Amino acid sequence: MKAIPWILTFSVLSAAPVQAQEKPNVGPWREWSILTAEDDVHVQALAFSPTTTMVAAGQNNGQVRLWHAVIGRMEQHFDCQPFKAVLAVSLDDTGKHLLVAGDSGLQTWEITTAKKTKEWAWPNKDAVRAAFAAKADRVVCLTDAGTVETWSVATATKLRSVEADRDTTWSALAITCDGQHVAAARTNGELLHWSAADQAPPVLLEKAGGAGMRALAFSPDGSKLAVVRGREAVALYDVAVRRFHNRLPAGTPPYHAVAFSPDGKLIAAGCGNGAIDLWDAASHEALVTLRGHAGLVLALTFAPDSRMLATSSADTLARAWDNHRHLDVPQIKLEEKELETLIKDLGSDNDIKVSRATLTLSAAVPQTVAAFKKSLRQGKAPDIKLIKKLIEDLSNNQFAVRSKATQKLADMGEAARAELRYALTRPLDLETKRRLESLLTKLVESFQPDDQRLTQRAIVILERIGNAEAKEILTGVLYGVPDDAIIAQARAALSRLQPAKQ
């Protein structure tokens, strides 16, 4: 496997300041899609489109892939030669142009045509880290010559350059949403803040001697910095009063990437073990830990609406997480063979195939609903009086009556399970008890692990689809499967699909 460059990139997206008392819409968060890179290739820069539907993923091989965040399908590919690595990506306000900061310069691409429209090189040096301002009009980069430089994207001119001291180097950098200020940390623990364009001397916010800082992120209004220091938890620095005033509750440090949500309500940080911790930015309360990655988190960024989060890891995957809402999924039509393959993949034990099948099937609504109507076990609400009568008939003196009752109960399947189980708690003759036990055993044995996996994953898709037919199938699952955990999952999905009470 290729060596993983120690590059921390993040996109700080613009947002209006928020009231401190406003609570974030925190969840529950869920993994929505998995965006795959090539083998041994790592995504180390991420950015959402203004509409949230697309995610640009910059890779350490000099390429960028544009993914549809909702259906997980690659929409466009950009080969950004001569870049050897992509350090930061951004999309402009129109969503029509992709900006790419690489090790050797900056490029602008027209997305629909995948044509490069502009390119310029960092003069006489290469960059090792970079970050765009929210409007993509300015970019800050750390060069291998030890300077932190701010550039105007429109004019390709350098606005300012700040050098490190002779005995230290830079370890992290960030630029405010409006592109007016830069913060950077030195390996000796110093934290500095300066104007991106004016030549006033940098302000020393934190003196040397503290723990080295791995990553920085400005709050949307630029008043605070989220700082990752050494193996400690994330700390919040107040730029105005020049002091650390809060240390967020530790999740699973050490952290390697950090970002504020555009509405200023959330802070996310990625860990060395692949976990992502989220906090309430106002109360500093730990909210949730997102698990799915299997390696060091390299980059993370929130969507403009703050309700999706994109993350990437040394496991070569990028993942999109959603704040559990019903997303507007674009509609597609599948070939019959592809539909069959996706249904098969949905029941497999390959996580990537399952994710891709889940997303694609969610976007092919009529075909998916029709396929699930055929493939999922469903039933109707039980006729309790009839079931009790049939259970009584199991003890009838006539063999024909007993046999007929046994067959009818077997045909009822899951609908009869609760009454069968209850009947076994009462005193019974040996033959009736054996018949009841046999019916329950066959019912459970008929629901194989492959059926279980397919049903569990189909429930996720049906909830995403959320229309009347999907709800009908979910209701059928309640009475069609002999598995309490799956029944609870279907019932919870139906509950979330109910209209919110006013």
Task: Tell me the layout of helices and strands.
Blueprint: E1 30-36, E2 43-48, E3 54-59, E4 63-68, E5 74-79, E6 86-91, E7 97-102, E8 105-110, E9 115-121, E10 127-132, E11 138-143, E12 147-152, E13 157-163, E14 170-175, E15 181-186, E16 191-195, E17 203-206, E18 213-218, E19 224-229, E20 234-238, E21 243-247, E22 255-260, E23 266-271, E24 276-280, E25 286-290, E26 297-302, E27 308-313, E28 317-322, H1 336-346, H2 351-363, H3 365-375, H4 384-393, H5 399-412, H6 417-423, H7 430-445, H8 449-465, H9 468-478, H10 484-497
Antiparallel strand pairs: 1-28, 2-3, 3-4, 4-5, 6-7, 7-8, 8-9, 10-11, 11-12, 12-13, 14-15, 15-16, 16-17, 18-19, 19-20, 20-21, 22-23, 23-24, 24-25, 26-27, 27-28
